[in-house]
Amino acid sequence: MDKRSFLKTGLAAALLAGTTLVVGTAFATGGGPLVGSPAPNFTATDSNGKTVSLADFKGKTVVLEWTNNGCPFVRKHYGSGNMQALQAEATKNGVVWLSIASSPPGYQGHVDGPAANAELARAGATPTAVVLDHKSTIAKAYQARVTPHMYIVDPKGTLVYMGGIDDKPTSNPADIPGAKNYVREALGEMKAGKPVSAPNTRAYGCTVHYAS
Fold first, then answer.
1. What's this model's pTM, rounded to 2 decimal places?
2. Residue-range domain boundaries for the chain
3. Which fold has domain 25-207?
4. If 0-12 CB within 10 Å is exposed, 13-18 middle and 19+ buried, where does residue 45 land?
5. DSSP annotation of 175
6. Cα separation of 146 and 65, whole Å?
């Protein structure tokens, strides 16, 4: 399906479902916690109805990935298998990977627990958990602006990375092989005991809409 057909199909699906479709590049700017400061703690429910708290993972590296399964920029990384490969690499090395769904009811990407689990199965994704943030509490704490917006918390609970998944702000999967994957690079540096060389980068994707 070409890009024009994809957009028409997505718009029609959104209108039929009564949801708000957000298509286009948005860049995250300003606000939120600072790299080098404690990562905001949170407690929420995951897609299996279990309570998840960031504090529970102290002593481990944690990746936070804001996601929206209707976003073309998210689809770029999931449709190609790029995000799933990164999740698998990270969790194999003991990293906790939390995918966070903050879309409120009525907006593109809103999912309940069963829908989130069905999407995981369909995509073959393997995060540690999908955290449901329908009231945007976590998104507001981190000032997550787009999907995917990526954050890394070190074992001491310090935020050491926030920004984009890579340096190619497009929705085209063909750009992935030539992209610099900031998250993979940061995790590799941390594993080697080195500081993250690019701790702040520009996140790109679909706008995260906060619940009112």
1. 0.86
2. 25-207
3. Glutaredoxin (3.40.30)
4. middle
5. G
6. 10
Alpha carbons 160 and 144: distance in angstroms, whole number: 15
Quick one: DSSP state of residue 34?
P
Helix, strand, or coil (residue 43): strand
Sequential pLDDT tens for the chain (212 residues) = 333 333 333 333 333 333 333 334 455 445 679 999 999 999 999 999 999 999 999 999 999 999 999 999 999 999 999 999 999 999 999 999 999 999 999 999 999 999 999 999 999 999 999 999 999 999 999 999 999 999 999 999 999 999 999 999 999 999 999 999 999 999 999 999 999 999 999 999 999 999 98
Would you list the DSSP string of 75-102? HHHHHTTHHHHHHHHHHHTT-EEEEEE-
Rounded-to-integer distance, Cα 190 and Cα 184, Å: 10
